[in-house]
Amino acid sequence: MKPNTLYYGDCLEVMREWPDACVDLIYLDPPFNSNADYNIIYGREKMNGGAVKRKDLAQITAFTDTWEWDEKTAERIRAIKRSVGYPARDAVLALDLHCKGGSGLLAYLVYMADRISAMSRVLKDTGSFYIHCDPTASHYLKMICDCIFGAPNFRNEIIWHHPKIGVAKHKFTSNTDTLLFYSKTGDYRFAPQHGDEPNELHARWEKKLRGNKLYYAQAKRIKDSPAQSKIRVTEKILGRKLQDADVVVDFSRPENRKAVDNVWKIPFIKGNAKESLGYPTQKPLALLKRVVLASSREGDVVLDPFCGCGTTVEAAMNLKRDFIGIDISMYALDVIQKERLNNVKFVIEGIPRDFRGAQEMLRARPFAFEKWAVHLIPGFISNNKQTGDGGVDGWAGLLNPPPDEDGICIAQVKGGKPNVDAIRAFAGKINSGEASAGVFITMQPWDTPTVRQCVAEAGKLQQGASEYNRLVMWSIAEYFAAVKPDLPPLAHPRTGRPLQEDLMVSRS
């Protein structure tokens, strides 16, 4: 476990290698089982005022929050039933009866139970745990957390109120999320937070204030118990009797502003906001700052095991905490590395550092290898599907596509030696007009007469004064030799604007 590090992989597998009680605060914003796909939109700005028409867009799934029952989940539940020491066993058994087995909901809850149990193990006894959820499964997740942390260690149900424009027609408009706050034990760190408004005493003493301060000259004439208590406390702090010019209460200080309760009114991030990164489920920095300030101290280790675009990571770093972020999506880590923390030195674990490491990743985690290989080319995002993807492992958008083409650039990854039929099938998608261009990624450079023929048959793409092959062969070996794929200029995957970075991904 290395502080100030991002990890690429499943948090369950990553945390398995860590010692017990090594983290001070955990916040997670996991999938909600919302049965929704969260998409990144590739588009290009049009001349008519920047409007983007539907036919000019291609939606690429960043991640899918849909869970399906399978035999692997059924076997996991059978194993939990046999494991009398499993922390969430009682909750899983009760949910199995409730869901009557075989449901996507139960598959999701078992997935979460395994990971929350692992989080409890790495959390210190003085640590706190916040799980962000919505009404889809928050009540079920509370059952699981009650079993793992113990019901007496449940501290708060926090309601995040984030009004949005729009009114539901057949129910009350939903404008809230839920954060369930637990501690590991009764001996945990917590610092009350205060808002921007002065507390109730401000209104009571308002006529006696000068410059938002209550001086002793006025306070000594106030006979109510809060004023007398403030006088005694101030005298104890100063170690002497007060003078008329001494300040008894300064309402600009945090402790004299209204205490934050369990309803947090923090605006949702608008698309044009400065902090918006365009990530589908991005949370406001103000939300995470409040969590970090309330439940950790400077120098503590803050973990986000589903770190997404890195809001928790940034909040922890800004507040002088050590951070650890884990995500199973290379796209999410790309956003953190290139946009959120582009001027910060940190390490990404779980990605190959040399060709041998890439071979090992291919052997041990083939699907993770595919996604990593696609993201080596900035502008590309990996296909979320692991099977049945039609031979397309990634997508990108051309910056200046021909007027009569959609401008989509596709990618396919072959870890072993690909056969000629695979390349011909991939080239066929370009030849048929399904894509304007494509890059075929292999482990080693592959150049044969048949390959050269496929490249030639795919034709050329004119981009200004430059001409490019529509079919590009590129390899992982070339990546580690700092050889870039000869592709046309690609667009930023969320804005459609030019990429402002070098093609090669940093391997620091």
Structural write-up:
The protein has 508 residues and is of the alpha/beta class. It is 31% helix and 23% strand. The strands form six sheets. Strands 12-6-7-5-2-13-14-1-15 form a nine-stranded mixed β-sheet, sandwiched between helices. Strands 16-17-18-19-22 form a five-stranded mixed β-sheet, with helices on both faces. A two-stranded antiparallel ribbon has the order 3-4. The longest helix has 19 residues, at 104-122. The two termini are 17 Å apart.
Key structural traits:
16 helices, 508 residues, 31% helix, five-stranded mixed sheet, elongated, 22 strands, disordered C terminus, single chain
In short:
By secondary structure, the protein is α/β, with parallel strands linked by helices. It has helices spanning 11-15, 71-82, 89-99, 104-122, 138-149, 200-205, 216-219, 225-238, 285-295, 311-318, 330-340, 355-364, 366-375, 420-431, 449-458, 476-480, and strands at 5-8, 23-28, 36-42, 58-65, 123-133, 154-161, 176-183, 194-198, 213-215, 247-250, 257-259, 263-265, 301-304, 322-327, 347-349, 381-382, 394-397, 408-414, 437-442, 460-463, 466-469, 471-475.
